[in-house]
Design goal:
The complex is a heterodimer of chains A (404) and B (245). Chain A has 14 helices and 9 strands. Chain A is α/β, with parallel strands linked by helices. In chain A, the strands form 2 sheets. Chain A has a 5-stranded mixed β-sheet with strand order 4-1-5-8-9, sandwiched between helices. In chain A, strand 8, helix 6 and strand 9 form a beta-alpha-beta unit. The longest helix of chain A is centred in the middle third of the chain and has 31 residues. Chain B has one domain: Rossmann fold. Chain B is 34% helix and 26% strand. Chain B is built from 7 helices and 10 strands. Classes of the chains: A alpha/beta (404), B alpha/beta (245).
């Protein structure tokens, strides 16, 4: 009976607090909606750059007419066969530019050689034996030619995300298979392709996820620590006492930022060191750039944490508000799977999460040694988040004293 | 506003939802006055102090401190505030608490140390200066809180229940100190739920349901009510308020 009394008391107190009650009800639903949407299992908008140098001609031997030239642009057929829901195909002329785009917004480059159609038709005939075709209104029998020394189709794939690289190659293979199917061939697709992983398979799934996990750990620790500390200052009355002294709200906010930045710096250094030393996580970039990303990210997080503390009457509420930041951060910021796998409806939410930018920036530096210039967008967004969040913190800091 | 009036409130109304905590309250306190705000719990003492200090915005009326309409940043350096809750850092020592708050008033470390010596002597915590505040009793923590609020020698101090939980002997020394400060031209507004305690003040305001029942010197209030002590005077005034006929 005593246990029941304790349980009843706990529930009564929870139910009396409307905000906590709302959080209790809304949080699980929020969680389910997020994972239901983020785990779509399919990819969309994967950018692939295609260089179509195929002349669209196939020179084949026939039983009836000797050697003839068939017109059949199989590279175009390949492009048409790519799933439009999965791939965002960009046609470019310059082979070098196409390959340079891989890892810089594009997941793969496909370069069709001039003799692509020719090679496919002849290899298909050789693999599948004789077959019929129509040429100028007549039915002709295609005969195998001598093996060709035709260049392969080059596919350069960004393998910084092994999961996604595999999905890209699967999608390209499917399109190639569809093209071969039109030639009624049992030809092995791989024999026609020269697949070149950008990082030679040196990036493991662990390397790909590490920057995001480190960023998530930073979010968790920094936001919780800051929000709890500010709520405790307020509920304990010390914040009121600070703000009634001749100090400005920005001085107080700056003080908090300095203190928690120092803590975040120590923790982040620990996270990076442990990841690299214990698990050999790839870190080929400039530590200075990583430090810049981390500082901007941490300052933004502290601003957000202070705002959370303003909304929270007590530490329990702050904790639940923090979850509203943490859950989307881990699910929607591209930590485990790229943003391209998320439905377009939920993607805007991803772009509203600071970790999305920190993760992208850290990943670029750690995995691909990206220079500062390649991070301009991410750094600008992180700086903007830091400025806005800190500005709002200063604004709400004095309100905290009023409402204490 | 007269130069001598350092606190002036006019028609203050403060509501929390449907509850009216301050109900058109007006008040004035002269410089160097030890003003006692007495009333039972829930009378509105803390709300009044917080409103005067600018921590709560009144729904109606206005307050001026040291000639500045509140809330104003200009008075903060001259303002002392002791909240009813302890508002001290339990995980810091007594002296660390004083040092931190002293730094907010731009006091140098040596100044804080010297001032801490005086104040900790007053609140009888000189031998506890290095002890963590969290390990002190409730009464001792309140005394730390009092020391903090007087640390920067404020011209005007609002002390919310500084004597709650303090033993009678120490309470008497507190009141002696408050009177000594008033003699040095420091203005103190001190709340207490022990009405009789207000006898030690130069001026007293009786607060009930967000309204001042009366204000004046203790002698004036006793004469007005024809009673011999402030407890009886409060009861008489309360009954008059309930039955205006």
């Amino acid at each position: 009976m005593t246990s029941l009394a304790v349980a009843r008391n706990v529930l009564r107190r929870l139910l009396r607090d409307v905000r906590t009650l709302a959080l209790i009800v809304v949080l699980p639903l929020f969680f389910v909606l997020l994972y239901g949407n983020s785990f779509s299992g399919s990819y969309s908008g994967l950018r692939v750059v295609v260089v179509d140098q195929d002349n669209g001609l196939a020179s084949v031997r026939t039983a009836e007419l000797g050697r003839i030239t068939l017109e059949m642009n199989l590279a175009s057929a390949f492009i048409d066969a790519l799933d439009p829901d999965t791939f965002d195909v960009r046609l470019v002329e310059d082979e070098e530019a196409a390959i340079a785009a891989v890892g810089a917004g594009s997941w793969a480059a496909v370069v069709f050689p001039k003799s692509f159609s020719n090679a496919i038709v002849n290899e298909a005939v050789r693999a599948g034996g004789e077959r019929k075709a129509t040429f100028e209104g007549e039915t002709v029998t295609l005969l195998p030619s001598d093996p060709l020394d035709a260049p392969s189709t080059v596919i350069v794939v960004d393998d910084s995300n092994p999961l996604l690289a595999s999905a890209v190659l699967d999608g390209l293979d499917t399109a190639f298979a569809a093209v071969l199917e039109t030639q009624r061939s049992t030809l092995d697709v791989d024999s026609l392709l020269d697949v070149r992983p950008l990082y030679d398979g040196r990036i493991r799934m662990l390397d790909f996820t590490a920057p995001g996990i480190i960023g998530f750990a930073m979010t968790l620790i920094t936001v919780l620590l800051t929000a709890m500390a500010v709520v405790r200052e307020r509920t304990g009355g010390t914040l009121t006492r600070i703000l009634i002294a001749p100090v400005s709200a920005w001085q107080v906010t700056l003080g908090y930022t300095l203190a928690f930045s120092a803590i975040a710096a120590v923790q982040t250094a620990e996270l990076f060191l442990a990841s690299v030393l214990l698990f050999g996580v790839r870190f080929v970039g400039d530590p200075g750039i990583v430090a810049l990303v981390v500082v901007l990210f941490a300052v933004g997080l502290q601003g957000i944490a202070t705002l959370i503390s303003t909304l929270s009457r007590n530490e329990a509420q702050a904790m639940q508000f923090v979850l509203f930041l943490l859950i989307p951060s881990i699910m929607l910021s591209g930590v485990f799977w790229p943003l391209e796998t998320m439905p377009a409806t939920i993607r805007p939410l991803s772009y509203a999460i600071p970790l999305t930018y920190a993760n992208t920036a850290l990943r670029k530096v750690m995995l691909t040694d990206a220079p500062l210039g390649e991070l301009t967008f991410e750094l600008a967004v992180l700086a903007a988040i830091a400025v806005v969040a800190l500005g709002l913190s200063v604004f709400t800091m004095r309100r905290q004293a009023y409402s204490a | 506003m007269s130069a001598e009036q350092v606190v002036r409130a006019t028609g203050l109304v403060k509501r929390f939802g449907r509850q009216t905590a301050l109900d058109g309250l007006s008040l004035s306190v002269r410089q160097g006055q030890l003003y006692g705000l007495a009333g039972p719990n829930g009378a509105g003492k803390t709300t009044l102090i917080r409103t005067l200090c600018g921590l709560l915005r009144p729904d109606e009326g206005e307050a001026e401190l040291l000639g500045w309409r509140m809330p104003s940043r200009r008075v903060r350096a001259q303002l002392g505030y002791m909240p009813q809750d302890f508002a001290v850092y339990d995980d810091l020592s007594v002296i660390q608490n004083l040092e931190f708050y002293g730094s907010l008033y731009a006091l140098r470390r040596a100044q804080v140390r010297a001032r801490a010596d005086e104040l900790l002597e007053l609140v009888r915590l000189a031998d506890r200066r290095r002890q963590r505040v969290g390990t002190l009793s409730g009464g001792m923590r309140r005394r730390v809180s009092l020391a903090i609020s007087l640390l920067h020698r404020p011209r005007l101090a609002f002390l919310d229940e500084p004597t709650a939980g303090v033993d009678p002997k120490l309470r008497r020394s507190f009141w002696d100190h408050f009177n000594a400060l008033a003699e040095q031209d420091v203005t103190l507004v001190v709340t207490t739920h022990l009405v009789e305690e207000a006898q030690r003040c130069g001026a007293v305001g009786f607060l009930m349901a967000g309204r001042l029942l009366t204000e004046g010197s203790p002698d004036e209030i006793l004469a007005e009510t024809g009673t011999s002590n402030l407890d009886d005077a409060f009861i008489v005034l309360q009954e008059r308020g309930e039955d205006p006929t």
